[in-house]
């Protein structure tokens, strides 16, 4: 065994493999002959070293170890004191050794290095729950929220951004961090700024308390110097369209109520009383419609950003409830009382004359309302029946239905009064009152139902929704449209909302078409470090996002131009 110490290390490996079975029967004091490949790792390279194979020789009373690598250190302790059995396969390190040739084994005696490339990863930034370093703020907000003056904003950095409004292309904003720093420079500390804010809130509260007095003073000032503003559109509203129909109906129904009331006082007819109450209810309800029309043309404000167009539906709904309570209720009451306590009636000649005049006047109002609805239905491509059932114009619908009920009520009252004159039985007159009340109840129920549906913002027709969707899908920048909602806001005003899946390649190409490609290529060639790459991507990434916003604005503008009834468009990026 001493002569084997001068042999190369791979000879020991072959001896160990060839005589594995015989060695396994020897004393368990023999450690493993080969400990396999050892590796040392670093961040960027691997170092391969030859196996540390050592042979143990047995002497008298002591053990000597010889190493082919010349290492005088002791080998690592074996995990088991027993030699490997012949039935068990060799370890993974030992199994790989026989596949090495002698030349390869000799070549691996020297340390070899293999270079491994490591991917450079940017460190993830933690922005925290509240990050406003890059937020923009307008000049108005800067002055209101940070109590600054216009002169304080002159020296700050100004940034031009796309305007969210259709009437302006771009507007100037400031960095919120710059505004906050300027506010601290002006006021000295956060506490002083907070005190100034509280003081201004107190002044604003006092102004709100005295706003009525200020409005009165402004009115007196205008009256003294003369109002040079253009005449309000509210006056012209009642000279055309639904406003004209309502004003005509108010005048005619007011006269009808006056004459019917005189006829009821003279004759004591229950049917005539029902007709007088009917005309009174119509006059009051149409006055309420006039208020709704006047309020519906108000401009949107901060509290009502979508305007007051639904005021017409609210007024029509209240009108329907009023017809039911006042008209139908009183007519039923008077008819029931006539059945329970019939009384003889005086001459009905004047009643017939007044009913004939009411029939003519109510018919004229019905004709005016009918012509207005036909004209509006023709403009929107609907039939007369569809226009009425969808309650596109609630004010005109109320006038139409009330006048139709008035004409039928006049005919019904005249017929019942004629039967009473022929038979002398006042019960027919009471039945006429009940019939008029039932007619008014049916009209009020229809008005309540249609106006309630309109107030719930129903969807527009499916064909119209399909038309709007196809227009967006035909645009090259759009891949798909999802979650489409098109609701009728009242008075033929449509609000359109959709989730839009944009084609990022088309948007990026649209951005590149406006850039200097040679300059971009030059910038790319100058990128050498991850920091330079990050700055390059941040610059162009922000510009591409702005291009995407411009694409959204373009689609919204074209959608409104092609469909004038679409007043509000909300396109959300998917």
Automatic annotation (TrEMBL):
Catalytically driven reaction(s): Zn(2+)(in) + 2 H(+)(out) = Zn(2+)(out) + 2 H(+)(in)
GO-annotated biological processes: intracellular zinc ion homeostasis; zinc ion transport
Gene3D superfamilies named in the record: Cation efflux protein transmembrane domain (1.20.1510.10), XPA C-terminal domain (3.90.530.10)
Parts of the chain that traverse the membrane: 245-266, 313-336, 348-369, 399-424, 430-449
Keywords of the record: Antiport, Endoplasmic reticulum, Ion transport, Membrane, Mitochondrion, Nucleus, Transcription, Transcription regulation, Transmembrane, Transmembrane helix, Transport, Zinc, Zinc transport
Keyword RNA-binding: no
SUPFAM superfamilies (alphabetical): Cation efflux protein transmembrane domain-like, Putative DNA-binding domain
A GO CC annotation given for this chain: endoplasmic reticulum
Annotated region (Disordered), positions in chain: 66-106
Domain called Cation efflux protein transmembrane: residue spans: 246-456
Keyword Transcription part of the UniProt annotation: yes
InterPro entries linked to this entry: Cation_efflux, Cation_efflux_TM, Cation_efflux_TMD_sf, DNA-bd_dom_put_sf, SLC30A9, XPA_sf
Localisation: Endoplasmic reticulum; Mitochondrion membrane; Nucleus
Protein topology in the membrane: Multi-pass membrane protein
UniProt cross-references to Pfam families, sorted A to Z: Cation_efflux
GO MF entry, a single one: antiporter activity
Family to which this protein belongs: Belongs to the cation diffusion facilitator (CDF) transporter (TC 2.A.4) family. SLC30A subfamily.
Protein name: Proton-coupled zinc antiporter SLC30A9, mitochondrial
Species assigned in the record: Oryzias sinensis
């Amino acid at each position: 065994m001493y002569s084997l110490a001068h042999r190369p290390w791979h000879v020991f490996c072959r001896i160990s493999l060839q005589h594995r079975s015989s060695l396994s029967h020897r004393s368990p004091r023999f450690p493993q002959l080969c400990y396999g490949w050892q590796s040392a790792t670093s961040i960027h390279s691997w170092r391969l070293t030859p196996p540390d194979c050592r042979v143990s020789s047995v002497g008298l009373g002591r053990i000597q170890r010889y190493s082919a690598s010349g290492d005088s250190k002791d080998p690592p302790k074996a995990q088991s004191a027993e030699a490997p059995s012949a039935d068990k396969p060799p370890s993974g390190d030992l199994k790989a050794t026989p596949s090495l040739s002698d030349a390869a084994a000799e070549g691996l005696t020297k340390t070899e290095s293999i270079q491994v490339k490591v991917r450079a990863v940017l460190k993830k930034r933690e922005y925290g729950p509240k990050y406003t370093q890059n937020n923009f703020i307008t000049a108005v907000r800067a002055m209101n929220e940070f109590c600054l003056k216009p002169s304080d904003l002159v020296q700050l950095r100004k940034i031009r951004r796309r305007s969210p409004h259709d009437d302006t292309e771009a507007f100037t904003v400031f960095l919120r961090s710059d505004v906050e720093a300027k506010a601290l420079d002006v006021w000295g500390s956060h506490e002083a700024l907070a005190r100034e804010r509280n003081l201004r809130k107190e002044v604003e509260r006092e102004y709100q308390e005295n706003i009525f007095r200020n409005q009165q003073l402004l009115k007196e000032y205008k009256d003294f110097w003369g109002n040079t503003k253009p005449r309000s559109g509210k006056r012209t509203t009642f000279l055309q369209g639904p406003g004209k129909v309502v004003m005509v109906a108010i005048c005619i129904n007011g006269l009808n109520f006056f004459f019917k009331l005189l006829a009821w006082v003279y004759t004591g007819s229950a049917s005539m009383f029902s007709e007088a109450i009917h005309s009174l209810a119509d006059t009051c309800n149409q006055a309420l419609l006039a208020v709704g029309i006047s309020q519906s043309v108000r401009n949107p404000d901060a509290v009502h950003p979508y305007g007051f167009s639904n005021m017409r539906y609210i007024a029509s709904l209240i009108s329907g409830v009023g017809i039911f309570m006042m008209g139908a209720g009183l007519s039923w009451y008077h008819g029931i009382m006539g059945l329970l306590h019939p009384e003889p009636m005086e001459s009905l000649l004047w009643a017939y004359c007044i009913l004939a005049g009411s029939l003519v006047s109510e018919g004229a109002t019905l004709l005016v309302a009918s012509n207005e609805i036909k004209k509006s239905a023709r403009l929107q491509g609907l039939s007369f029946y569809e226009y009425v059932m969808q309650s596109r114009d609630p004010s005109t619908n109320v006038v139409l239905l009330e006048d139709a009920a008035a004409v039928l009520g006049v005919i019904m009252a005249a017929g019942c009064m004629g039967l009473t004159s022929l038979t002398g039985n006042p019960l027919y007159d009471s039945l006429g009152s009940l019939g008029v009340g039932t007619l008014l109840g049916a009209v009020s129920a229809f008005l309540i139902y249609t106006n309630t549906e309109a107030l719930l913002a129903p969807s527009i027709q499916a064909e119209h929704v399909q038309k709007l969707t196809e227009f967006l899908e035909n645009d090259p920048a759009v891949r798909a449209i999802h979650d489409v909602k098109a609701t009728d806001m009242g008075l033929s005003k449509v609000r359109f909302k959709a989730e839009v899946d944009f084609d990022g390649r088309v948007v990026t190409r649209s951005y590149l078409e406006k850039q200097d490609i040679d300059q971009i290529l030059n910038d790319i060639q100058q990128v050498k470090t991850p920091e330079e790459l990050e700055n390059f991507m941040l610059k162009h990434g922000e510009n591409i996002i702005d291009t995407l916003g411009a694409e959204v604005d373009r689609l919204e503008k074209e959608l409104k131009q092609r469909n004038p009834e679409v007043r509000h468009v909300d396109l959300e990026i998917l």
